[in-house]
Amino acid sequence: MFKCNYRDLTLSFNEFHNIEPKDMPQYGEFCLLELKDGRYTGGEWNPADYSGYKNKKTTSGKFVRGTGDSVPSEEVARWHSLDRYNPSNCLEEEDMDCINFGVPGDNVYSVRFDGLKSFKDGDFPKSEQYCFLILKSGDLSAGRWEQYGKKDGAFIYAPALAAHAMDEVWAWMPLSSDDVFDAEEESEKERKQEEELNRNPLTDLKLMKYGTEIDVYYEKALQKLLKKYPWATITQMKKIQPWEIVPNHGKYVFAKTSQGYRGDKLVDEWKEGSTADEFISFLCEYTKESVENSNPEKKFKYGMDIKVYLDKAYKNVKRDYHWFDRRKTKGFVDYDIRQIDGEWEFVRDYNRSGVYHIVDCGSAEKFVESVENDYREIALRTNPEVAAYDVPFGHVEVHGWNLEHYRFIKMQSGDFKVDVQAGDRVTGGSRTFFITPDCFEAKTYEEFLDRYLEIVPGQSFGLYKKELLSNRDLKKFLGYN
């Protein structure tokens, strides 16, 4: 690794450019930025008018620091390239204490930084702190610190969470604070205040009339529900996200809690009343649907033998998916009826892992439908593909995503399916649809499309009848002359 001592190193930046036409960075160039208010940050130059960037006439645009994190060019006074420098040779000299990026001079605008830190000394940036970086490759960069654990994290520097990992960074130093960092500092301050308030929470005697054990309130709500739903249990009531009694803002409250992406607890406080009895009435209404859907007479309408339900699902799927052999589900999925927390439940184990999960359904018919969906997916996955045709298209936007491929596939059985994929720069997804046999009962290609587009509608998946009707290759691929 580099030999010079980063603790004693000063960096001098001497080739700053003003924000003005014909003196802007290259598109995508990563820069150190001096803002008009005197603070320092960094970012990748993205001109607003891409066509104007080649001759650098435009100053309109932004310096991107990450997803949803950028600095408008109007806020920047000067920029200094980081991409054009690699000080590796200098860092290999033990007595190096100053590195100049550009030639210093009397009339040259210069900025000096020192106080570099290193992870190997146990130093870490604060959460969301934007930092200057010297990478172990010798390249210069900057990024916003994202903490993943007590001693783990990365510097986010571009959209889609592009990041420099800890082990890529030789030394770092904080740049100026900004709105993102200030918001995180304020949030951290509030978290500490909340923690202190909740050490000895107060108890509102009207709200916590029956104490601070939540099951006492569930039991009282259950007694009311039993009058209409004699099969009701607390287990059924808690199938929907349960309520808790937790300290919040220094007092005990009824709340639903969840974990934030940083591991902190998020508290959704109940505010629809102010007394314990009002909460109990609310709890009855909140859990009613879950209890209704647990009626054993409806749920296990066809008895307690799982084979009966699977036979019904298989029979229904077999009508259209004529090649489907239920023996091929082995290794994909398994079903059972088991007792979970005192309640009989339909359960499913994907990939035969030995871990069963509850299939939460309110009726035997809904469980059969759920099995049918699994069987259809398995039927398509176990029917080998023998030919494919990609429909050509220009730019097609589908609800903010760009259509990436629209592929008709012929399977070994002679049946067809279609795979549609769309996405943007950050994410995407695909869906596969079986083209049911009744579509091919159509005598003409046009009539076929009318039926097909009820399965894969143009407004949802990008291509309409007019685009497909004129495609002779697709027509031939599907077997129409």
Would you kindly provide a written description of the structure presented here, covering whatever features stand out?
The radius of gyration is 32 Å and the shape is flat. It folds into four domains: 6-179, no CATH class; 214-294, no CATH class; 298-381, no CATH class; 385-477, no CATH class. The chain has a six-stranded antiparallel β-sheet, with no helix packed on it. Strands 13-12-11-10-14 form a five-stranded antiparallel β-sheet, with no helix packed on it. Strands 21, 22, 23, 24 and 25 form a five-stranded antiparallel β-sheet that branches. By secondary structure, it is an alpha+beta fold. It is 24% helix and 31% strand. α3 (214-225) crosses α5 (276-292) and α7 packs across α8. The chain has twelve helices and 25 strands. The protein has helices at 88-91, 179-197, 214-225, 234-237, 276-292, 296-299, 306-318, 364-381, 445-455, 458-461, 465-469, 472-477; strands at 10-13, 17-18, 30-35, 40-47, 61-66, 69-72, 76-81, 98-101, 111-113, 130-135, 140-149, 152-158, 162-165, 169-174, 244-248, 251-259, 265-269, 333-340, 343-350, 357-358, 385-390, 397-398, 401-411, 416-423, 428-435.
Structure characteristics:
single chain; 481 residues; alpha+beta; 4 domains; six-stranded antiparallel β-sheet; five-stranded antiparallel β-sheet; 12 helices
Q: What number of structural domains do the residues give?
A: 4
Q: Can you give the mean pLDDT?
A: 93
Structural class call reads alpha+beta
Fraction of residues in helix:
10-25%
* Overall number of strands: 25
